[in-house]
Amino acid sequence: MLEQPQVPTPGARLSREEVESLLFHPDAEITASLARAARQIRDRIYGRGVFIRGLIEFTSFCKNNCLYCGLRRSNALAERYRLSPEEILECCEDGYRVGMRTFVLQGGEDAYFTRKRMTDLLQEIKARYPDCAITLSIGERSSEEYQAFFDAGAERYLLRHETATNAHYRFLHPPEMHLSNRMRCLKELRRIGYQVGCGMMVGSPGQMPEMLARDVEFLRAFMPEMVGLGPFIPHRQTPFAQEKAGSVETTLRLLSLVRLMLPSVLLPATTALSTLDGEGRIRGLDAGANVVMLNLSPQSVRKKYSLYDGKADCPDDARTIWREFSATLEQNGYRAVVSRGDPAGKEEIE
Q: Which residues bind S-adenosyl-L-methionine (predicted)?
């Protein structure tokens, strides 16, 4: 019989073997024990408030050909679109009106959105909503572009590293993409002054337990302000169409473990988690997450932003989404927070 691993103390440094044991031990009680410990540290730092981000998926064009993504350039069946600046600003207005104070602009790596187009857009958003934070999630760019976006008002940047194992990165991506460049981008974002987010998929094709443990080791060393992680879900129009989805339980354990290792991290309960489990967002919060992204994109394009099959979404308007999700939070002992939702300062952790 395998020895049951011990739940780590907040901020602990674990070996890869210890991480593997916590994530993959067959005892179901491990999930509950990790979640209890993660909730305690999250509640001590952040309370029961949940930061709500307004997600705007503004382009489904992408120059990359990642093997797991439905937006990959080789997918001739993908429905492509770009939101205009006016449409993006309308999304911001909808979110601001109901209480959202962070806008997440997410899209494929679309060359149409040049440095000038992006900086003009960012400056206009900041001019209209100076009390709001802007998060970008638009992939690998040059250092000069990152600096220009920061100077124009973007303060946060989400760039999943996807895997810290070079051979696994090559397996998931086309030959022209390199883990070394992904890491360069993350370091540049940190140098410039962004609040930086990285993360990975759980159960992605070719992923071995030791690879996921190495990802946790990377997170512990890099100390991102945000970590985005969720289960892998296949897309029918990609080379990985027949692969199995990642484990919900392993994802929940990993959320808890990340909270314990990085106590002040901003940790979303992701859409992918709620796609595989109808209660996924609440289960993610119960595992230690404290952020939820609600979709502000126009209803006409939501299904077109198809990263994976069966994406969970709400067809309603921003006001209805906010009202209904706020009620769900309250029923489960949480509350929606109307604020930018910055990471806790050091003084709040000690």
A: 162, 182
**Residue 142 annotated as lining a ligand binding site:** no
Q: Any known ligand binding at 162?
A: yes
Helix (H, G, I), strand (E, B) or coil at 123: helix
Sequence letter at residue 144: E
Distances (CA, A) of 271 to 12, 66, 182, 256: 28, 20, 23, 17
User: E-strand spans in the chain?
Assistant: 49-59, 102-107, 133-137, 156-158, 195-202, 226-231, 291-295, 335-337
Would the annotation count 170 as a binding residue?
no
Contact 23, 212 (CB under 8 A): yes
84 is in an annotated binding site: no
Distance from C-alpha of 330 to C-alpha of 270, rounded to nearest angstrom? 19
- What is the residue-level pLDDT of the chain in tens, covering all 350 positions? 457 888 988 988 899 999 999 999 988 899 999 999 999 999 999 999 999 999 999 999 999 999 999 999 999 999 999 999 999 999 999 999 999 999 999 999 999 999 999 999 999 999 999 999 999 999 999 999 999 999 999 999 999 999 999 999 999 999 999 999 999 999 999 999 999 999 999 999 999 999 999 999 999 999 999 999 999 999 999 999 999 999 999 999 999 999 999 999 999 999 999 999 999 999 999 999 999 999 999 999 999 999 999 887 666 788 888 889 999 999 999 999 989 999 986 434 43
335, 302 in Cβ contact below 8 A? no
Q: Which residue in this structure is represented by tokens 């998929």?
A: 201
Q: What are phi and psi of 157, to 5 degrees?
A: -145, 125
Burial classification of residue 298, based on how many CB atoms lie within 10 Å of its CB (0-12 exposed, 13-18 middle, 19 or more buried): middle
Is 39 annotated to bind ligand?
A: no
One DSSP character per residue, 281-320 reads HHHHHHTT--EEEEE-S-HHHHTT--SSTT-----S-HHH
Residue 92 labelled as part of a binding site: no
- Model confidence, pTM: 0.95
